[in-house]
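[recover] target loaded
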């Protein structure tokens, strides 16, 4: 996924990448199911480039609760500022500016796409909001079956003895 920066004209331009041309995730262990065209809007102002755009991606994920495979999607938002050419001016405090290596006028965008994809990931992967997960005791998938472990309440055996003692004492007093 390359951007020919030496061919860019001043001002606004757009680049389009089809699903097959978006190579940023190919090396990762992610099964991309579908992805729509990525449109990158590029604003060139002298040596500065602002590259932004978005596309939606559908991919295979594994539920954190029940370990089931499921399909999920997200929107990859891309927003980067670059400085190209030799003259490096002072860094702006407000904007993070990237100084890419000069690669014969070509900017490889794979790493930036990949980074944007991972930034969009959810904190937790859940096959559904009310996934019931796996039984802590027997490992049964509680979305599919009721294992019965729930019925016996987990009581600390030490508490059981204490409860018995308290009952006995109360009995003795009365
Ligand atoms: Zn689940
Ligand atoms: Zn169980």
């Amino acid at each position: 996924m390359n951007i020919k920066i030496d061919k860019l004209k001043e001002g606004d331009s757009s680049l389009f990448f089809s699903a097959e041309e978006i190579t940023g995730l190919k090396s990762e262990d992610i099964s991309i199911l579908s992805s729509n065209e990525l449109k990158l809007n590029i604003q060139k102002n002298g040596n500065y480039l602002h590259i932004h755009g978005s596309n939606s991606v559908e991919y295979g994920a594994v539920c954190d609760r029940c370990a089931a495979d499921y399909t999920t999607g997200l929107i990859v938002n891309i927003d980067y500022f670059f400085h190209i050419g030799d003259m490096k001016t002072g860094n702006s405090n407000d904007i993070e500016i990237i100084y890419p290596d000069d690669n014969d006028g070509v900017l490889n965008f794979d790493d930036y796409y990949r980074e944007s994809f991972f930034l969009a990931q959810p904190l937790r992967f859940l096959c559904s909001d009310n996934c019931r997960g796996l039984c802590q005791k027997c490992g049964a998938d509680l979305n599919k079956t009721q294992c019965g472990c729930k019925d016996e309440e987990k009581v600390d055996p030490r508490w059981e003895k204490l409860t018995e003692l308290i009952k006995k004492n109360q009995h003795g007093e009365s």
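[recover] notes: Residues 49 and 67 are 42 Å apart (CA to CA).
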